[in-house]
Write a structure and sequence with these properties.
alpha/beta; five-stranded antiparallel beta sheet; binds flavin mononucleotide; Rossmann fold; 7 helices; globular
Length: about 280
């Protein structure tokens, strides 16, 4: 009997050692994503690798092929007609996961249509959900809200979003995001909060112009700004006012927040826009 108890104690110790080796969170984790032109795929793979998670791609039955404009044309038509594209059945048993990272490109301000289709076939209520996305200029906040509205009983956590033009930043940023969220072991720099905003100076206005350039979706003038120190540089949070587009009615969303990163020795870039 004594020997038997000893064996059980060793088995328990071994089990504990193995589950510790899986990282901080020994829960079952799934990375579920859609990607049309491979940006979100790269991000999803980064997440899955660091988390040691299972990964599954949402695949439309009829792929969105062709040039960018072809994809815009088809998806615009589908949106107008209110049809969601058919996607292949998912293989993952969603019920067996506690933590699900949901990744997508932003289309028309929210998650892409094939992800909307996939979400029709699963239930994320009761799950912890971490949204992540890639975009031209922004859309993380709006898409996370849409996810929460779709699954009111899910715990939608703060997400991660990155511009398609900044894919080279994902390795460092995903690492920081996962550590600061407690999803993987390790220390992440704690960022100070932005202080109160002040009217933009000429220098700050020049930083805004350098970061935004002539990006077509940001026709805006910076009005106020706050800045904080981040690892390797300074981050600015501009409040900008949309400029009226000649010949069109005044915009119904005149104000936007534009985040700009000025890393030491590099030209400033905008990292996301929140409308
Ligand atoms: C149909 C379509 C609609 C898009 N709409 C937006 C948008 O509303 N906002 C935005 O910032 N980017 C938008 N984009 C840009 C994509 O979000 C961006 O290129 C993304 O990185 C593509 O990811 P993928 O390579 O995983 O498909 C759109 C792209 C397409 C094809």
């Amino acid at each position: 009997m004594k020997k038997f108890r000893f064996i059980i104690a060793i088995a328990a110790a071994l089990t504990a050692a193995v589950s510790c080796g899986q990282g901080k969170d020994a829960r079952k984790v799934l990375v579920l994503y859609y990607s049309q032109s491979a940006n979100t795929k790269a991000l999803a793979e980064e997440f899955a690798e660091r988390l040691g998670a299972d990964i599954e791609e949402v695949l439309p039955v009829e792929r969105y092929a062709g040039a960018y404009q072809d994809v815009i044309n088809r998806s615009s038509r589908e949106r107008q007609e209110g049809v969601l594209p058919e996607v292949k059945p998912l293989k993952a048993d969603i019920a067996s996961y506690d933590l699900i990272f949901v990744g997508y490109p932003i289309w028309f301000g929210t998650y892409a249509l094939p992800m909307a289709s996939a979400l029709e076939s699963i239930d994320l209520n009761g799950k912890k959900v971490v949204p992540f996305c890639t975009f031209g200029s922004g859309g993380l906040e709006a898409s996370a809200k849409d996810l929460q509205d779709k699954f009111p009983k899910a715990e939608v956590m703060p997400g991660y979003g990155v511009r398609a033009a900044r894919m080279d930043a994902i390795s460092a940023e995903v690492d920081r995001f996962l550590k600061s969220g407690g999803y993987i072991e390790g220390e992440a720099a704690v960022l100070e909060a932005f202080p109160e905003a002040h009217p933009v100076s000429e220098d700050e206005s020049a930083i805004f112009d350098a970061a935004v350039g002539d990006y077509p979706m940001i026709q805006a003038k910076p009005a106020a700004v706050a800045s904080r120190t981040v690892p390797g540089g300074t981050e600015y949070l501009f409040t900008a006012l949309s400029q009226p587009i000649p010949g069109s009615a005044a915009s119904s969303l005149p104000q936007m927040k534009v985040y700009v990163l000025a890393e030491n020795g590099k030209a400033p870039v905008f990292t996301r826009v929140v409308r």
